[in-house]
């Protein structure tokens, strides 16, 4: 696989995309050393692969700036009535907002951000207002219904916009690499801190350090660093479909969901295996526990 594409091939999976996905698989399998080594290949080859954090978080979401230098792999969409447009502008606009938010086609009100998600951002985090809105104006009245702003475009028609869907970003790689390093052994203000703070600085936030007069910025041990990575991934990658898989990978899904009043049974941490696949090879493939 090439490191990049040009012309009509832009958007195809590159070697960087394959490495990033493999690094995530290693991380999920708790193969920390393999994960760190594979993810470091992407970081070390940024000159060749042209990966970097964009200076402005808001530039990540402009339809005029897709497949940018922070993008490692994104699903391509193209509006225009050909059946290749993205539905996210309409899906994420508040229900009842008509065309106020979505401009063309009604808002469907899916994936409405919770107050807990809005409160997850630290004071001064530049990502908050670039990721979600607290509501919209209907005439002279403010309607306090939150909605996602990462995927706003003016659709050609309902559910037919230009927004690509980000699957892998360089910020994701930096945070995964920091996680893999920490799991191999906590080092106070070591290399893992550098990559965590690289992402935080872009968001306008101060560094987290092993010793800090501000308690919310102190990360004193391995367990605290795990939570720091969890928090940073939550807000950096908000509404990009990473949160559930992060919680499953770190063994925190049942606990965190319980804090929100949702009971998750242990077997629900895995998906059921499609019956069609079991039927193809019943001697080797059996249904996951809890779904029989």
Topology:
Layout: H1 15-28, H2 32-44, H3 46-49, E1 71-75, H4 88-92, H5 115-119, H6 128-131, E2 132-133, E3 136-138, E4 141-143, E5 147-148, E6 165-169, H7 170-184, H8 191-202, H9 222-236, H10 243-249, H11 253-259, H12 275-280
Antiparallel strand pairs: 1-6, 2-5, 3-4
Q: Your description of this structure?
A:
By secondary structure, the protein is mainly α. It has 2 domains: 7-74 and 167-262, Serine Threonine Protein Phosphatase 5, Tetratricopeptide repeat, CATH 1.25.40; 77-163, no CATH class. 37% of the residues lie in helices and 7% in strands. The protein is built from 12 helices and 6 strands. It has helices spanning 15-28, 32-44, 46-49, 88-92, 115-119, 128-131, 170-184, 191-202, 222-236, 243-249, 253-259, 275-280, and strands at residues 71-75, 132-133, 136-138, 141-143, 147-148, 165-169. The strands form 3 sheets. Strands 1-6 form a two-stranded antiparallel ribbon. Strand 3 and strand 4 form a beta hairpin. The protein is globular. The protein starts with 14 loop residues before the first helix and ends in a 12-residue tail after the last helix. The mean pLDDT is 96.
Key terms:
292 residues; mainly alpha; Serine Threonine Protein Phosphatase 5, Tetratricopeptide repeat; 2 domains; two-stranded antiparallel ribbon; two-stranded antiparallel sheet; 12 helices; 6 strands; 37% helix; 7% strand
